[in-house]
Design a protein that fits this description.
six-stranded mixed sheet, alpha+beta, 7 helices, 10 strands, globular
Length: 223
């Protein structure tokens, strides 16, 4: 018999009106901003499918996305005032509608972030319903994780021994691996190793992983 969580029935604690277009949108942006060192200077949102419908953009999704990118959780009462708060913070933001490109899920957004150090990161996310989300692309490389666990995202050259190095660093920190997946552009090119753990990930594990010369960057996403 399939198990159904109470959260699948009543949905997340949120500022409404829609779990997909408000809570899901906020959660996607909230997760995305954890993947880049803040504070942010500029953010561009490209909306697809039902996210791109004008009534949604005006009333729900845009405010939720902007709130999430500023670190507001789904039940934060500041979400309706996201526009004015972003302007007060000096955060430059733009929304773009893409009605021509086909995407895998109707509730899809590309979020391109630029921090004050000039670092740029683009994340594609999907709102799956009931407040649940999935990150499906990072910097044009297809990936798959939900943010429901503490996550280490390791960007590296696709060379032998890197995955073993990552798992060894985690073992030395006594970190249990719940899931681990490798995504890559093609053999020998840029790869993303994504490790999801039940445990909190200390900054020291990032420093250890970066000691491998094939590793370009490590992003730790804390719960």
């Amino acid at each position: 018999m399939a198990f159904i969580s109470v959260f699948d029935v009543i949905g997340p604690n949120m500022i409404g009106p829609s779990s997909s277009h408000t809570a899901g949108a906020d959660s996607l942006a909230f997760l995305a901003q954890k993947m880049i060192n803040g504070p942010l200077k500029k953010v561009d949102f490209t909306l697809y499918g039902s996210f791109a419908q004008k009534p949604t953009v005006v009333t729900e999704t845009d405010r939720a996305l902007l709130g999430g990118i500023m670190g507001f959780t789904t039940d934060d009462k500041r979400i309706p005032d996201s526009f004015s708060i972003a302007e007060e913070k000096g955060l430059e933001y733009h929304f773009h509608i893409n009605e021509t490109e086909e995407v895998d899920h109707p509730n899809t957004v590309d979020i391109t972030m630029v921090n004050e150090d000039g670092q740029t990161l683009t994340v594609r996310g999907e709102s799956l319903g009931g407040g649940k989300i999935r990150i499906s692309r990072i910097n044009q490389v297809d990936v798959d994780f939900t943010g429901e666990y503490s996550t280490a995202i390791v960007i590296h050259q696709d060379t032998p021994g890197v995955v073993a190095h990552i798992t060894r660093c985690l073992a030395e920190e006594n970190i249990n691996i719940a899931f681990m997946k490798l995504f890559r552009e093609e053999k020998g090119q840029t790869a993303y190793s994504i490790v999801e753990s039940d445990d909190e990930l200390p900054d020291s594990v990032s420093e250890k992983i970066c000691q491998n010369p094939s590793v370009r960057n490590v992003m730790l996403v804390h719960l």
